[in-house]
Design goal:
Blueprint lengths: L1 H31 L4 H24 L11 H30 L3 H25 L23
Helix pairs in contact: 1-2, 2-3, 3-4
Length: 152
Amino acid sequence: MWRQIKYFIKAQFSAGVGYLCDYTTMLIFKEVLGVYYLIAIAMGGLIGAIVNFTISHFWAFRPEGQHYSRTAFGQMWRYACVLVTGLTIKIVGTNLLTIYTGVDYKLTRLVMDAIVAICFNYTLQRYYVFKPRKASEPVETTCLNADVSTES
């Protein structure tokens, strides 16, 4: 149980750092550079995702005494799928909430971020993207992944 709580806390920290980068980037693009808010959200999401993936891969979801079931490259592809889906939900949801409620995009964005984080991101990252390898699973190997051994 403690291991699960530890992963959750570390993942939330990683997500928080990624989110700060995401939200700050969005504000810079929108408020400083004058970019349309939906494009600014996408740009922030991309920067936040890079930060979150890096921290998650090397620290938050790092299996103790195990290896990942996927190479880093394989994790990137899975992460990209989760990212695109989550980002789409955020953009569409933020746009709909902004249009239909008249509330500022900065607040509707926070609502959508909370929904996506709680209902979507942690579970998929923990059990789909950064899944630890079971002892019976073969190890994927590529030249792009120095952190996975070739042991059986």
